Amino acid sequence: MCYDLIAKTNRKEEIQMSLTNSILCLFEITDPNLIVTGISKERCSTNQRIHVVHATLSYQLLKCPHCGHKSLIKNGTHMSHLRLGTLSGGRYEMHLKRQRYQCKDCSKTCGAKTKLVNRNETFTHNIKHQVIVLARDMLTSKEIAKLCGISPSSVQRILNANIHLAYRVKHLPENLCFDEFRSCNHWMSFNCCDAVSHRRIVTLKDRLSKDIIDYFEARFSVQERAQVQSVTIDMNAEYGSFIHRLFPNAATIIDRFHIIQLAGRALDNERTQTIRTIQDKHSRIYHILKSQWRLFHLDEIKVNDSKAVYLRGINEYMTQQNAIDLALDAFPRFRSVYQTYQGILSAIHQKDANAFQSLLANYQPTSNQMDITINTFIKNGSALLNSCRYPFSNGPIEGLNRKIKALKRNCFGFRNIDNFFIRISLIHE
Q1: Where are the alpha helices (DSSP H) in 174-313?
Q2: Sheet containing 200-204: order of strands
Q3: How far is 18 from 306, CA to CA, in rounded Å?
Q4: Contact at 8 Å (CB) between 163 and 418?
Q5: Helix 209-219 and helix 237-246, axial crossing angle in degrees, nearest 10
Q6: Radius of gyration of the chain, Cα coordinates, nearest whole angstrom
Q7: How far apart are CA 195 and CA 303, in angstroms?
């Protein structure tokens, strides 16, 4: 009879230990000194249901942390209310009874410690990790607070305390990309990344030249900046004015997309001016220039000249080349602009720097929209030719800016630029 009672008692203890281990595993708690005593449900002042895990924390403390004597005695417990990570979107807490100790020698008291939470804090490491993970998914602070069962201000405090913006990167890469994006309150901020690894280097609050110069000169030595071999930029004239000062051995590269975009804008401006000169708004030429504008932006190699297709707007079957020829034959001035655009497009796609340089040198102004574009290209001649000589582009930094725009859209904008930059550092990790 006595043996059966002992066996039943041991069985109950095993079940209790198994239940304790299961609950601790759910919350990823690995402290061996924690013992779960029960689970209950309560309601707070806002009528929100709280799942409460009752536990005790106790272990044998040999020396007093104040005086070092081995004269400690147990002196009651202290109740701590800790916030746990959520399991199903609700609010989970742990009511933890911590063992208190008193030293007979110095009469000072101390309590049991756990790695579950920092000193004098109620948020456990588990819920902080959940907040950071959800913030990386571009959720708003209110949505994160709702999922974790905390307040939006607590979410921001957790992010501010655990995410720190780096002073600088350890090594400055050899190839950089410069660009800007719209941040808070209609400000334009500066962004820089590695052209090869696509790693973000720095994000500054504004794009002023003096602030960009101060950042790189204050944080990187002349020897480090001299190792940069290329900097890829857009058509922004301000960047080109100080790149050689910061990086004396770097070649300035203008992004190929912006070159084609500028030439295509000149082609569209000339096309719209040509449309305004047509009196008959129902003519075939008018409809070709009006509705089939995409054909004029195609590379000549990709234009179909053998198979007739139905062209909407014209409502006729004809080849793409035939439609282009009808418009060009009717307007010689538009033809010259179109031919210049095709020359630029071919040189950029084939990365032929000699062909591009020859086109700029032999261009004859005809008082059209392309004249302004060619003058802009001539002013930035070496940087434009480098776009054909080097394989780098602004594609990596445009991808980073796209993520920033998605973050702003998901979070409905930001009023505090510091909070915005903390979220930017999370999505770029």
Answers
A1: 209-219, 222-226, 237-246, 256-276, 284-291, 293-297
A2: 200-204, 188-194, 175-182, 230-233, 251-254
A3: 77
A4: no
A5: 20
A6: 34
A7: 33
- Which amino acid would we find at residue 419? N
- Contact call for residues 125 and 82 (beta carbons, < 8 A): no
Torsional sign, CA 46, 47, 48, 53: positive
Tens-of-pLDDT digits for all 429 residues of the chain? 444 545 445 554 444 555 666 777 777 787 888 888 888 888 877 777 888 889 898 888 888 888 888 888 888 888 988 888 887 777 888 899 999 988 888 888 888 888 888 888 889 888 999 999 999 999 999 999 988 888 899 999 999 999 888 899 999 999 999 999 999 888 899 999 999 999 999 999 999 999 999 999 999 999 999 999 999 999 876 888 899 999 999 999 999 999 999 999 999 999 999 999 999 888 999 999 999 999 999 998 999 888 999 988 888 899 999 999 999 999 999 999 999 999 999 999 999 999 999 999 999 888 888 999 999 999 888 899 999 999 999 999 999 999 999 999 999 989 899 999 999 999 886
Distance CA 409, CA 423 (A): 13
Under 8 Å between Cβ of 335 and 264: no
| DSSP H helical ranges for 309-380 | 320-330, 332-350, 353-361, 370-379
Contact of 78 with 59, CB cutoff 8 Å? no
Tokens at residue 365, please?
């102004």
CA distances from 149 to 85, 130, 138, 190 (A): 9, 11, 18, 36
Beta strands in 9-151 (DSSP E): 34-43, 49-57, 72-84, 91-103, 109-111
pTM of the model: 0.81
Please say whether the beta carbons of 109 and 70 come within 8 A.
no
Residue with tokens 């000062």: 245
